[in-house]
């Protein structure tokens, strides 16, 4: 059964993408016109969030004000846009926080919109999507795309608009500068040793990338653009970075003894403190992957997020395709999944208004129903726990970490006792709605526990706050005594969770 979508995009609608990078925060606002995006506003602010990481999962409080002030300015620009037309993503630095909600809660308040944490490989997919739309690749030709951020580096091989290989490494211009040049001193010996260490990070996938191959390489975001600018100003290249120009820039850089002394043509004062780390990452990548020339794209993850927003409102939603792939990978009983989904969505439609649920909740419930049995591929015992683990920790194209944690919570609480800690990783703003759709999934799974292929009669549900009234035909209940017993047990389980379930015969 199809899920209920948010209102389709219309000509003139505005969309916004916010990228909370480890070095800079970006916002792009675009107008949807004739199926295309027309960029009408770009805002970038250097925040250097990664500078606040303390190596123990904490964030220096001194970086919070500049991050929140920036988001407040972004929020003023997109205050009138509906939530379905705005997507804000946090990347590597927030991924490393031991308690990301300590940052996300005030950040969401400042922005006025929800913020999702995106995993490294999903970040890579969005980067490729942005670059591919900015410079459409030639048909049938593969492209290598690389993005060096403040805390991580994403490397992708794609064809057309599809990312074929995605990797994310814990190295970026800020993190690498701090790691190898934290005292500000530069030396050729230190550079050589660091380059060997970084090149080793590419080894697990370098051979695979080389074997797959690509026709051209493109870099996105500020670090690679800054290196290209220096290459052009030094008259080494015209519109790209080559292995020879990279070597020349490196040799020139290492003529300086300290980062504060660096003076290179085309290098801005803002970029200077983190340039060495970014150059080192690119130098190691060129060597490990055998890159000879790299062009620069003006597009990056934020543009990819905009195009992904369009896809999310269409039948080609990448998340739906990922769910289908999981069903195939784990051998899901598709008929049973469809039965559970149909009942879950029927219950949702009856509870939607009273509980204030939205289209996002409906989609999450539908996807959870489609893959609720994937844990059976591991073992029947505790299969709900196995399924939750798979969903939470897998790389699922199209899903942010936040969305995967929602699915994991739904799968983990589909049966047996509901542990309130199952919802601890979710933002506070989402807990109530996720708990409610979890109840709907539980009832649907329970009603279809027998895997009976016979059509289910009308199931009626009334909800009022924490009270649920479920009505089923008496004849059907009489013919399914085990289900009736399960419903009675469920009533006791929900009572322990602070919910009241009443069962009546029609």
Ordered list of secondary-structure elements with their pairings:
Blueprint: E1 14-20, E2 24-33, E3 36-46, H1 64-77, E4 86-90, H2 92-95, H3 101-111, E5 115-117, H4 120-134, E6 142-148, E7 153-159, E8 162-169, H5 173-181, H6 188-212, E9 216-220, H7 222-233, E10 240-242, H8 243-253, H9 272-289, E11 293-296, H10 301-312, H11 318-329, H12 334-355, H13 359-370, H14 383-393, H15 401-412, H16 428-447, E12 460-464, E13 467-472, H17 474-479, H18 481-496, E14 500-505
Parallel strand pairs: 1-4, 4-5, 6-9, 9-11, 13-14
Antiparallel strand pairs: 1-2, 2-3, 6-7, 7-8, 10-11, 12-13
Helix pairs in contact: 1-3, 4-10, 5-9, 6-9, 7-9, 8-9, 12-13, 12-16, 13-15, 13-16, 14-15, 15-16
GO biological process, one term: polyphosphate catabolic process
Protein name: Exopolyphosphatase
InterPro entries: ATPase_NBD, Exopolyphosphatase, GppA/Ppx_hydrolase, Ppx_GppA_C, Ppx_GppA_N, PyroPPase_GppA_Ppx
The named CATH superfamily of the largest domain: Exopolyphosphatase. Domain 2
Reported for the largest beta sheet, the result is: 6 strands, mixed
CATH fold title of the largest domain: Nucleotidyltransferase, domain 5
CA-based shape: elongated
Q: Tally the helices: what do you get? A: 18
Strand content: 15-25%
What radius of gyration results from the CA coordinates?
25 Å
Helix content: 40-55%
pLDDT < 50 runs, ≥5 residues: none
Domain Ppx/GppA phosphatase N-terminal: 28-310
Enzyme class: hydrolase
Subunit structure: Homodimer.
Protein name: Exopolyphosphatase
